Amino acid sequence: MMIGFDAPDARLPAYARLRDTFTARIATGEWTPDHPIPSESRLAQEFDVSVGTVRKAVDGLVEEGLLERRQGSGTRVRAPSFSASLFRFFPIRETDGSPVSIPSSQIILRSVTQAPAPAASVLDTEDVIKIVRLRSLSDQPVLFEEIYIPTERFAGFDKLPESSLGPLLYPLYFEHFGVMVKRASDEVSFGKASERVAQRLRIRAGDPLAVIERTAFDIENRPIEWRVASGSATNFRYRSEIN
Amino acid sequence: MMIGFDAPDARLPAYARLRDTFTARIATGEWTPDHPIPSESRLAQEFDVSVGTVRKAVDGLVEEGLLERRQGSGTRVRAPSFSASLFRFFPIRETDGSPVSIPSSQIILRSVTQAPAPAASVLDTEDVIKIVRLRSLSDQPVLFEEIYIPTERFAGFDKLPESSLGPLLYPLYFEHFGVMVKRASDEVSFGKASERVAQRLRIRAGDPLAVIERTAFDIENRPIEWRVASGSATNFRYRSEIN
Questions:
Q1: Domains of chain B (ranges, CATH numbers)
Q2: Size of interface A-B (CB pairs under 8 A)
Q3: Which residues, at least 6 apart from B33, have a Cβ–Cβ distance to it below 8 Å?
Q4: Does B190 lie at the interface with A, CB-CB under 8 angstroms?
Q5: Which of B31, B76, B77, B115 is close enough to B25 for a disulfide, judged by CB 3.0 to 4.6 Å?
Q6: pLDDT digit of tens for each residue in chain A (243 aa)?
Q7: Nearest by CB to B242, which of A62, A186, A234?
Q8: What SUPFAM superfamilies does this protein map onto (chains A, B) (predicted)?
Q9: In chain B, whose CA is at the least distance from the CA of A70?
Q10: Largest separation between any pair of C-alpha atoms in chain B
């Protein structure tokens, strides 16, 4: 496993350490909602513990809502696939339906700053790190993002080496700060591009803009990130499953 | 219970009949995701069957994904609360956050017709019933909807008496046609109002328009409805939970 998160505390009982290990596998995307996790007997073998211990660890994660048991199709990750949600914003499939490349991600700014009013209100603090990011598809900018995370939970994020910043932030939050994003709430609206945003997106000021405001929550349901993502409204598509 | 759906088939085993009865409670909204369903022992008492029979019926619905067991907080409906999704489209809370009235619903047209291409493609048939509906808040039209359902599954929908049409379609689908909407898929995009839509929404042709295309699926994952809902983009808000 390539995670920098602390190894489970050896003083914890075996099932609790196993639970932390499993949580890490979910957070880092090693286990996904797409495939059942290994059977309890295989996990018992892998970690050299009893099946009862594995079951207790899995039970805990089912109770927390991170895993779910489905008769006939095994136990699966129930956590949302946030990487999939990347693909909901713009037509990033070819018109023939074939998948295209993952949007590239360029971090323009990271700075410790004072939160603007909506971020401060959601995060309940003015001490934040601001991240400005541009996402592009085949060199065409499609999404301009301003992201705010509380300094208290993410101290040092602004100093992480560039090389450690992949295209996805949520795995990073977990690996470096032990913060796992459990759910998020999006609000889509339409507006007009400001001069500044228009320049980044290579559209004209006043052009119709699609805006997604997202609040992300950790496992304890605390808001840990607020972001505003903007893109040209012209080709905008936002997909949402209700189930 | 005020449902017109057929009573469970008496030739079925007790647990299967119970399962149908429970499904009806979910479909009609008697059981909601907001509260745990009664305990298995209370249900056994209510239906005069053994706890084992209740458990078997509940197990079946858990497996189908209609119910979910949560340790410590009982068994709950897992089906989406579609009525709540009504409230995601427009600012139908007062600015102070207090809830306002449910949007009123006016059915303008019901007719057996030939499906337009996107509806035919999703529903896999050209034989549809078209429903045109206008939703208003305090007499202001906010959402213009064109809804297509396959005639094969909904024969006679166009002839249902006006008085039986409440503000929500999904409970109606179940009560009269035994079709339960299990999940839906929304796609939000942005466009310009046509003359016809503008007139209904009391905006001007060419004004910015928010468009939601929705496909709804039944319990067997068959598409059973396709709709396009349009509203002025100006005050549009679409909320979505990712979890």
A1: 14-77 (1.10.10.10), 82-232 (3.40.1410.10)
A2: 95
A3: B76, B77, B78, B79, B80, B81
A4: yes
A5: B31
A6: 333 344 566 777 888 889 888 988 887 778 887 789 999 999 999 999 999 999 999 998 887 778 888 777 789 887 565 544 444 554 444 445 554 556 778 999 999 999 999 999 999 999 999 999 998 887 889 899 999 999 999 999 999 998 888 777 887 898 889 888 888 888 899 999 999 999 999 999 999 999 999 999 998 889 999 999 999 998 888 888 777
A7: A186
A8: Chorismate lyase-like, Winged helix' DNA-binding domain
A9: B63
A10: 63
